[in-house]
Amino acid sequence: MATDIGADRSSGDRGLLDSLPCGVISFDDSGRVLYANGTVHTMLGYTAGELEGGHVERLLTIAGRIFYQTHFFPLLRLHGRVREVFLLLRTKSGTELGALANATRTTRDGASVVDCVLVEVHERRKYEEELLRARQSADRANGELQAQARVLQQTLEQLREQAVELEMQAQQLQEQTAELEMQQEALQEVNDQLLSQRDELERARAVANEANQAKSQFLSTMSHELRTPLNAIGGYVQLMEMEVQGPITDDQRQSLDRIARSQRHLLRLVNDILDLARIEAGRVDYRMEAMDVESVVVSVVPMLEPQLAAADLTFEATIAPGLRARGDREKTQQILINLLTNAVKFTPPHGHVSVRAHHDEPAKQLLVDVHDTGIGIPAEQLASVFEPFVRVETGQTHRPEGTGLGLAISRDLARGMGGDLTARSEPGLGSTFTLRLPAA
Ligand code: ADP
Hints:
Elements: H1 11-18, E1 23-28, E2 33-36, H2 38-44, H3 62-79, E3 81-90, E4 96-108, E5 111-120, H4 122-241, H5 250-280, E6 288-292, H6 293-310, E7 314-319, E8 324-328, H7 329-345, E9 352-360, E10 365-372, H8 406-416, E11 420-426, E12 430-438
Helix pairs in contact: 4-5, 5-8, 6-7, 7-8
The protein binds adenosine-5'-diphosphate.
């Protein structure tokens, strides 16, 4: 049976122990209190002797008991002592009290005894509590930090993924850039080629222009040289026909007539060539003015009347008054005479020739149609009649006189005035030539 620490002491020793400023308590391995000095009793609000025989855990708070069972007593059993351990004590009235404990486990009279010295520490407890609170808040902070770390980790992963994506995009961009650079180089090459071709074309055009000028010059000189003797031939034929140099026989008159026809034909050809050469050389001046279309048409009709009558054709002009076009009056007359002469030439007797003018509002143009009910032009030759020297092969026995230059000259003149000349035709039914001029 274990004896308590003070049990075998003299009453003087006991007085000394009771008056110590620290608590002294002994208990056995089962926790039964063997001795507690007066300071312990006073500290915890017990009367003297009230603690002995009771269980030591009675003096601890619940947290203190858990600590005692899991740490305090196991440490004592293991090392035989504990140093400066903080214990949460419980007073008789139930309040808490912090104490610093130093304890040793020894064997007395063959039994294990724990001697424990308790120093009340109000301040320390406060520190402990603050420490606890600090730890708790540190734990909370740690939890938050861990959560933030997880978020950061996720963000980091997302950023890594984005970085990989960006890397891929950058690579694609690099590839595209390389491709574009190649394309640009190819384009540059094409551009260089085009530029050199343009230079070549420019040179070719200059050469062609020069050749054209030379040709026009040649044609106009030749035409002039040809006209002089042709006029002389015409003059002498007239003199002989008038029998100025003596009488002529009927046979001679017939021959002179043929000479005169050939001379007129040649003269017209030369004049037409001269016209075309001048137009192509850009040496034609256009005196542009606002023209009353009706008056231009009316002015050319008298020149055609003898031919219309000779060919037994009817004629009609339908021009609304007040229609105005911009153009050179003389050149417009020349075109109309040419179109009407053709209409007369290529329309069999009893046919009909008409002129109609109207306004093409959207195109801001005035259209003059010269229509006939003549032999017409096959579709495949319609475009080529505007080429110089082109005459449609009709198979007629009597082919009307002509040079094949009238339509070429007329279209050039129409275009020179900002207009155009086009044709529609139905073989056997007739043709319509349309002169377009800018509306005034
Ligand atoms: P030319 O009348 O002096 O032969 P053009 O250039 O005026 O020359 O006409 C070219 C050709 O177009 C004519 O020879 C003729 O074959 C054809 N042509 C022109 N106008 C008509 C028309 N109104 N009807 C039928 N054929 C036409």
